Amino acid sequence: xxxxxxxxxxxxxxxxxxxxxxxxxxxxxxxxxxxxxxxxxxxxxxxxxxxxxxxxxxxxxxxxxxxxxxxxxxxxxxxxxxxxxxxxxxxxxxxxxxxxxxxxxxxxxxxxxxxxxxxxxxxxxxxxxxxxxxxxxxxxxxxxxxxxxxxxxxxxxxxxxxxxxxxxxxxxxxxxxxxxxxxxxxxxxxxxxxxxxxxxxxxxxxxxxxxxxxxxxxxxxxxxxxxxxxxxxxxxxxxxxxxxxxxxxxxxxxxxxxxxxxxxxxxxxxxxxxxxxxxxxxxxxxxxxxxxxxxxxxxxxxxxxxxxxxxxxxxxxxxxxxxxxxxxxxxxxxxxxxxxxxxxxxxxxxxxxxxxxxxxxxxxxxxxxxxxxxxxxxxxxxxxxxxxxxxxxxxxxxxxxxx
Length: 403
Ligand SMILES: Nc1ncnc2c1ncn2[C@@H]1O[C@H](COP(=O)(O)OP(=O)(O)O)[C@@H](O)[C@H]1O
Ligand SMILES: [Mg+2]
What we know:
The protein is an alpha/beta fold and 403 residues long. The protein has a domain at 278-386: CBS-domain (Roll), CATH 3.10.580. The protein is built from 16 helices and 18 strands. The strands form 4 sheets. A 6-stranded mixed β-sheet has the order 6-7-8-3-9-10, sandwiched between helices. Strands 2-1-4-5 form a 4-stranded antiparallel β-sheet. Strand 11 (290-291) and strand 12 form a beta hairpin. Helix 7 (140-153) packs across helix 8. The protein starts with a strand and ends with a helix.
């Protein structure tokens, strides 16, 4: 949807003069010391895929806002190229657009939501939500219809005629979101849209965004400095440091395998239970019928490798799927009377819940439904404490996490 190639932004007079230093591999501090120019964004390349939420995450001053403003050229990049896949015109180079065509692109294809969304105090909530449509020249009736629909979507259907002063901060951010959504822009650029909200309202807005995204499937570039927020909503996350992307991956990849010390420090205190999946931490079954560490357990697989039955100390076990336990209250006493199965995509949180029902390990099935591995308590504990599976992470990375 959007492709960035080597985007660089330097602040200061004659910024391009510092580009050779960057080419030579100098970092932000060295460039600043030698030329007094500030490196805002350092050779960032990425591909924003249609329908994904791509999160950019990093400490304050790492270049997130500069980068997102380069995408719609609110800030002119010093070097690099940007492309937009226009649904009607094919690929357009954003960095080469005339001011007029750039305005068209911002009006119709890219909407931006800021941390403190400024509403017009003298306009109603509905008029604020439809502001982008008015700029687009959409007729009044159509504007009102779409505006009302978007207000309902963000939970403000009854507030259309209210004035912004009557709304709380969280509600005002919702109006900002409604305005961005109403334009039907394919790309949403969101710069810390929830960072100023109270924690509970913030989580609420994250859920709202996920729900809306499931319906509207926009392409979203989302900035945050909150790792749990990034993990919750991101399909992919890019970690930014001193203007550069230091790691790009799924939340799980970043959590389980942080590539640098900076990334490791970020993920150190993250809650892994909703992010790490069963496939990552399972260990292979040692034998065909026996399970290492569980001498009394005997499992029987069919020719395809699917579970046919199981016994524990001679007694037949009940078998079933973790998913089926969602609404079942756990027993007062845990027994070794039940062998549960789950697929590789099941979250750690779900596997943990299953532990309330049985003391036996959980079997992990591959995409064909064959028994591929198992998870027992030691593996679960390691995953939570060290954020890794039985074989993941190089010793170097592990050291960093342990410190
Ligand atoms: N207009 C500007 N002039 C000079 N330096 C700037 C300007 N805007 C941002 N910077 C610098 O660029 C770097 C990145 O800033 P910013 O993109 O705002 O970071 P973030 O959004 O991640 O907090 C910082 O070092 C900041 O001081
Ligand atoms: Mg910022």
